[in-house]
Amino acid sequence: MNESSAVTSPQKFYWFNNLVQDTALPTDAPNKTHVKDGNVEGAVSGVDYTADAAGVRLDFTLDTSRFPALTPVTEARVGPVPRANQSIPGDVTTDFFDRPVDTTHLLPGPFAGAHDGRNTVTLWPPAGRTVPPVPAPRPGTPRNLSLGADAKATASHEDGDLSAGKAIDGRPATRWSSDKSGDDTAWLAVDLGAPYDLSRVSLSWEAAYADSYRVQVSDDGTTWRDAATVTGGRGGTETVAVRERARHVRMRGITPHTPYGYSLYEFAVYGSAGTTAAKGPVLYTDGGYAGTSAVLAPGDHDLPALRAAGLGNDSVSSLRVPAGWTVTAYADAGFTGTRWVFTGDTPDLVALGANDRISSVRVSGGAP
Question: What own/partner pairs with CB < 8 Å and gap ≥ 24 does 132-140 have?
């Protein structure tokens, strides 16, 4: 399409003519706003775009008072959409959809109806066409849960309008920033609206990225546990594997790379609804459901079995027990000594006198 644009920054357009076989647009054609042969400053503002399953749309505000001496034209020739700073050859013979161009006639371009004020232009699909429906993903396929209607973002600090919600809006040009809060442990959290089986977190950093940080999860948004700790952060887009079932996910900084805190363009949490069936009790080496963890199946788990699971002797400090399960823990390795029975989550074993004292475990319950 001839009257097209290459967006090189959120507030800048390049408008082109003379696209097809070096033929310039007629200067005497009425009723079309067109920038011809020169640069115009400040004519376009408020540039935004939406790209989703429904198509690609561009929104912008045009101030025609910036170029009063230019002659409007009505039509534009057809040619490919240029990329940023790409030269447009004069011998274009096919359009954006690789169809032959009729070079003997003038065809309307996508900006032919641009007018003074706010404009919305559909770049794709072409007029008269519809976007085919997107096939439903297979059950259990991870998706970006941060984009869900129920997802809400909060943060420990926000820099003006660089708010938490802008890190989960699906727009790569918007961002959250903690700015110069001076808080190295500043955080950004997402409430997914319901528990999900999580698979990974993708963090798209602005220049103010983290050299080190934690990805944490929570069931209630109050008590957090570490899902991953990242050191040697390099900025850009980083993907962190997360194998947890949780409703709340957050990035909590440890060391910022710059004096400007932390800033994220996108904080994408991937996962699936999974199954609500219990997978088994989980034992943790640290209080608050942190540290090394192991899921235990029904049956007896003596000291060698606990060691094989990575827990070791006298190392359990918290545990999660799904509904319908029972964990019986013993102070001695052979299912003897002091006994503790758990039928629900216990974030701290200190008050029970069981912290770092468990040497064997019996698990019962769950699906038959």
Answer: 134/53, 139/272, 140/272, 140/273, 140/274
User: What amino acid is encoded at 145 in this protein?
Assistant: L
CA–CA separation, 329 and 44 (whole Å): 69
> What are the domain boundaries of the chain?
1-134, 143-272, 282-365
- Output the pLDDT for position 86: 38
Q: Report the topology of domain 143-272.
A: Jelly Rolls (2.60.120)
Give the span between the Cα atoms of 338 and 346, in whole angstroms.
18
Question: Consecutive 10-residue runs of the chain (368 residues): their mean pLDDT?
Answer: 35 36 39 43 80 79 71 40 40 57 57 79 75 68 83 93 94 91 93 88 96 94 92 92 91 96 96 63 84 84 88 88 90 94 91 91 78
Residue 113 CA to residue 135 CA, distance in Å, equals 34
Is the peptide bond preceding residue 125 cis, with omega within 30 degrees of 0? Answer: yes
Task: Give 233-294 as a DSSP string.
Answer: --SSEEEEEEEEEEEEEEEEEEEESSTT--EEEEEEEEEE----S----EEEEETTTEEEEE
**Residue 303 vs residues 54, 295, 298, 306, 349: alpha-carbon distances, Å:** 57, 15, 16, 5, 19
Contact 362, 296 (CB under 8 A): no
Burial of 272 (0-12, 13-18, 19+ CB in 10 A): middle
Does pTM surpass 0.70?
no
CA distance linking residue 202 with residue 168, whole number of Å: 11
CA atoms within 13 A on the CB side of 225: 27
Q: Is 269:144 a contact under the CB 8 Å cutoff?
A: yes
Structural contact between residues 46 and 61, judged by C-beta atoms closer than 8 angstroms: yes
Topology of domain 282-365, CATH: Gamma-B Crystallin; domain 1 (2.60.20)
Place of tokens 């065809």: 107
